[in-house]
Write a structure and sequence with these properties.
Elements (H helix, E strand, L loop, with lengths): L13 E5 L6 E5 L48 E4 L3 E10 L2 E10 L5 E5 L7 H8 L3 E4 L11 E3 L2 E4 L6 E5 L5 E4 L7 H10 L4 E5 L2 E4 L2 E2 L19 E8 L2 E7 L12
Antiparallel strand pairs: 1-13, 1-15, 2-6, 2-7, 3-4, 4-5, 5-16, 8-9, 10-11, 10-12, 13-14, 15-16
Length: 262
Amino acid sequence: MKRSMRRKPRPIKGWIAAASFVIVTVVVFASWRTQSASPTNTVAGAGDYVAAYYPAVTEEPVMSGEFTSPCIDAPYDGQYADDNLQVYIRRFEQSGITYFVADVQTKSPSQLRAALSGETMATVSQLAERSGAIFAINADDYGVHKYGTIIRNGQLLRTHDTTRNMLIVDKNGNFSVRVERSTEDPVALGNELVQANTWQTFEFGPELIRNGQAVEFSPEFDLISTAPTRREPRTAIGQIAPLHYVVIVADGRQSGYSKGMT
């Protein structure tokens, strides 16, 4: 039986799909606390995407006020809350697919960080523990290819042409997606993003929703198969409001547990 995921209608400003395989970058959310603590509950499905609490950054938050209610209803399979970070996770099973929806709210864009594996491949859990994350998901696979304009935690690492969609996380933590890449100058783009104090860029895709509306896949996007019969593990991240994000992680390729999403 399909269960409702929303307490009240909230427009999602944008969604973008991430890579669906073991990667060398993860997106992590850290808390402002500097002393050890434990989340109310943690959940790790076969996607292996959520980590326990570890000490994290110590900068002052840039936003004040209370968090809003999560976009998913209880009961929750995992949750964490302190003064600067709130995470709620719920597991769903539908039509042979097991997937997890997470509502994440932070007080500062610097809490949305990228963790890098270095010279060797690493799992999401390994990178999460190493970086001190409370919640972590897979991101792009920039370390195993040469393409794209890559900014990690405010630092420009590479400029190269690509047909991928670029998720831009600006200095305020707001999302935008760059789809048309055929005519861009990667070096000029990198300089432009650095001058704008861009916090992160991720090269993956495709873009799914823009300003609350489903978008058609660009014919130039050829990173992954978007055929309706191709089922894979999938990860997607979207923004609901300033510093308020929603994540979906779908497991796949596991007969009897989850066949994956198209």
